[in-house]
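pipeline: protein-struct stage 2 | run 1193 | XRE family transcriptional regulator
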Amino acid sequence: MEQEKIGKFIAKCRKEQNFTQANLAEKLGITNQAVSKWENGKSMPDASLMLELCQLLKISVNELLNGEKIIMKDYKKIAEQNLIELEKQKEMADKKLLTTARVLATMSCLSAIVLMLTGTLLAKTDQFFGAGITLLGTVLIFATAIYAVTVEHDAGYYECPSCKMHYQPTMRAVLLAPHYGTTRKMKCPYCGKRGYHKKVFVK
């Protein structure tokens, strides 16, 4: 997807509907700076805004993603290309999110360990202060673990080793599952077999 082409198309359609950037932004509940960034090709409209934006500009989502009006005979082909491109972008975003979460989790855990060790040492001279620092380290570890598992759950899917189906389990299933890395022992909702299901990014 060419962001600059899409941006110019948004600007063209906006003008055809007699909207200023400020008018369009107000109707979408965003800032006119956000609209300006779209039109300059610096960013893309958020997926949650696309339908409403297309309704206001009187275009289809496929036309928006293609950056031009679509002739009816090419519609199906272009729609499929756009879906594939969106899936690729989601896959890349999920991988980046999971990598970032791993780095943050590692840094937070190291910080928590330092806090807990510091708290233990300080407890010898100031028991109350030392206990507080140790407690802070413990809370940081739990908060980091919950954050990391939440990101892991939301990014991508899991693959059943038996039937090879890809699915997204419940948050509870992911939290309670024995695991190593991002591979978790869970029950497949398709075949019903338990096994170690690995993290994948393609549906």
